[in-house]
Amino acid sequence: MKKAFLSTFVLFLIVVAASAAKPKATKAAPVQLDWQGRDAGIQIPDWTKAVAENNKRKIVKEFDLDDYMVWVFNACGTNLDFLETWTDKVELQSNVAQSISAEIGRATQATMQAEQNLNETKINQAITDVTTVLSNVRVNGLERFGSYWIKSGIAKSGVKKIKTEDDCDITYAYYTVWGIPKKAFKSQLDAAMQNLPENTAQDPLLMKMIVASIEKTILGDADASLEETTYDDVK
User: Fold this and answer.
1) How far apart are CA 182 and CA 36, in angstroms?
2) Mean pLDDT per 10-residue interval, the chain, length 235 residues
């Protein structure tokens, strides 16, 4: 019995050693096959790299948009026409509303939690009111300052070197930059705040903190995160 146990233990050590020595499979890096303006000798712009680095501040500087609220989107999928249409016509307003609600909601929560004269119930209700109203905001006057696409390929299983597009799975990345002057944006948010429930709207302290949170969000817009969407199942 002891001998059998030792044999099993030795076998276990051999298996562990073999597993440790086996090199991990590395995922093939995507290869850029085509991009907007390639035929004309245009190189991929730096601002698309800033999107990949989640560096919104660099994008704001690149397009000289310091006085604008800016939204940057990075959509990926297999169908470029779908990406362009869906991102610009559908996802834009949806994601803008979601980002407004989330960012101002977080700022409002942080401001209110620092106020000792407010109880948790009142804080939670006010945050719910603010995020609900802002999630329904449809921003008017958004302007597109940049758009760009890149076509890449990832080698299919068993392919060591990509020679043609048949050797890889194709995916597109579509980048867009949208903005609206901060003054115009704030005016629209002020109008939206008129729809707050009375319990929140008629409380001077709550409204003071909500207004401060909106202004803080607008001033700190360049530090907000970027939006990324992947559509793997679109053909």
Assistant:
1) 30
2) 48 46 61 94 93 88 94 92 91 89 92 86 92 92 96 88 85 94 94 93 93 89 68 51
